[in-house]
Amino acid sequence: MTGRHAVALVLLSAGSAALLLAGAAFARLPGRYLRLHALSAATTLGAPLTAAALAVETGPGRAALKLLLIGGLVLAAGPVTTMAIGRLTARQGREQPR
């Protein structure tokens, strides 16, 4: 196992763990806002780490650059989308009572 493979394995493990924890939290949390909070962790941590792991594994080149660009776009757009969905839910008054 080369150093590049080890780094990719660590990044992929961390990204997969973040995605699995976010999925478990989404299934267990009661309110819509709490579920949005769980999903924002997946988009800001899990998906970019997974994309970085794939970029490291492919090695230098165009494919790695494309994967890093995708990870960066998900990292930038995820919190904005979560905030927009939260605001729309608040405006429509769809929050369930506790």
Automatic annotation (TrEMBL):
Q: Which UniProt keywords apply?
A: Membrane, Transmembrane, Transmembrane helix
Where, by residue number, does the polypeptide cross the bilayer? 37-56, 68-90
Per the record's keyword annotation, is Transmembrane included, yes or no?
yes
Keyword Transmembrane helix annotated: yes
Q: Which GO terms describe its biological process?
A: inorganic cation transmembrane transport
What Pfam families does the record tag this protein with? PhaG_MnhG_YufB (PF03334)
- Could you tell me one molecular function GO term of this UniProt entry? antiporter activity
The protein's superkingdom reads: Bacteria
Identification of the protein by name = Cation:proton antiporter
- What is the protein's species of origin? Kitasatospora cheerisanensis KCTC 2395
